[in-house]
Amino acid sequence: MAPVTLLTVIFFVNFVARQIAGPSLPALEKELGLSHSHSGLFILLTGTGFCLSQLGASLVAARWGYKPCILLSIWGAAAATLLISLSHSVWLLYLLFLMMGMAGGLYVPSGIALITLLVQPRDWGKAMGIHELAPNFALITVPFAATLAVAMGSWRWGYQGCATVLALLGTLYLLRGSDVQARPSLPSLALIREVASQPSFWQLSILISLAVGVETGVYSMTPLYLVSERGFSLAQANELLGLSRIPAGFLVLSGWLTDRLNPPIAIALALAATGCAIIALGLGPDSALIPAIYIQASASACLFPPILSMASANSSRESRALTLSLSIAVAPVVGGGILPAAIAVAGDVFSFGAGMAAAGFLTLMGIFLVRR
């Protein structure tokens, strides 16, 4: 499991670099004088960049291998975070957040496909559970890192720290990272048509979009919601956001159960708990806020191991990287971009609470898709 551990660390730092924007948005809005809708565009562009790089990830992995693709992701993210920390132009920041998403998108298909080649199929659930600890521990770390950066003087310190760690991690993976001789097939229109013609592919794509939306999309808007409408300070909101992600450490148990239970059952249960928690977060009284945030964090984290196991099982070894690229591609735009941007627009037009509740009802509708 040593290669899985190193890949998990890479995923963790890469995820921190992409997600630190959410807890930093109140301070970023204040410095740049942005509305909620405009700041939500940073999140949308990050998701759009993530989507655009998915097919490119398959091309790079097919020609050069999984390791070069992962290295390009690490160093690309390091460059983007450094430039974000130095930029004072809103329009330049929009471009840099797009680049950040593109760098992050290069990692995911290669990282997951590489794990399935390094680990026996009977252990995929456990390996995915370990790998998916990265985003959940990142979601714990990010609010405290953002708060510390603001306390030190500026939200920019958080991005500079990410750039430094990413550069060091890229050097480590260059020297010690694992790779395999096998290469994914070069993407072709025929192969894309074959993958896209499978109903299970579209169902998995929608499920992954929902999973990304209820975990990172809602997460990125929660600090703005708590500060703007619920009377929290930035430090209080980020502290609650970070602490609520600690129970998600039981994600390893979710991966273990996925190997022994029917994955659709695990997905449906997690969607039900997550949807109800988000509705309570948006419409419930103040006394319901903390329990709702904790439940939403833990339940949404349990979605990814069973969904990714299903995605791997429904694809051949040759087409797995492309299948993962295509199914994951739409998720950052729909779940990680459009959904939080819509919540931000609701915060300007109606209320953040109404936007949160709508996201919760949409999550519950996903249960009907799982049944099919």
Describe, in plain words, how this protein is organized in 3D.
Helix 4 (66-86) packs antiparallel against helix 8 and helix 13 packs antiparallel against helix 15 (304-313). The chain has 17 helices and no strands. The chain is 83% helix and 0% strand. The chain has helices at 2-19, 21-32, 36-64, 66-86, 90-118, 124-131, 133-152, 156-176, 189-196, 199-229, 234-244, 251-258, 263-283, 289-301, 304-313, 320-349, 352-371. It has a single domain, classed as Up-down Bundle (Growth Hormone, Chain: A). The longest helix has 31 residues, at 199-229. It is mostly helical and 372 residues long. The mean pLDDT is 81. The two termini are 35 Å apart.
Number of domains: 1
The CATH class is identified as Mainly Alpha
Largest sheet: none
The total count of helices amounts to 17
CATH architecture: Up-down Bundle
* Rg value: 19 Å
Strand portion? under 5%
Percentage of residues in helical conformation: over 70%
Order of SSEs, N→C?
HHHHHHHHHHHHHHHHH
**CATH H level: which superfamily?**
MFS general substrate transporter like domains
Compute the separation of the termini in Å: 35 Å
Give start-end ranges of low-pLDDT stretches.
Answer: none
Give the overall pLDDT as a whole number. Answer: 81
Strand segment tally: 0
Give me the CATH fold name.
Growth Hormone, Chain: A
Query: Which of globular, elongated, flat, extended, rod-shaped describes the shape?
Result: globular
Topology:
Elements: H1 2-19, H2 21-32, H3 36-64, H4 66-86, H5 90-118, H6 124-131, H7 133-152, H8 156-176, H9 189-196, H10 199-229, H11 234-244, H12 251-258, H13 263-283, H14 289-301, H15 304-313, H16 320-349, H17 352-371
Helix pairs in contact: 1-5, 1-7, 1-8, 2-3, 2-7, 2-10, 3-4, 3-5, 3-16, 4-5, 4-8, 5-16, 6-12, 6-15, 7-11, 10-11, 10-14, 10-15, 10-16, 10-17, 11-14, 13-14, 13-15, 13-17, 16-17
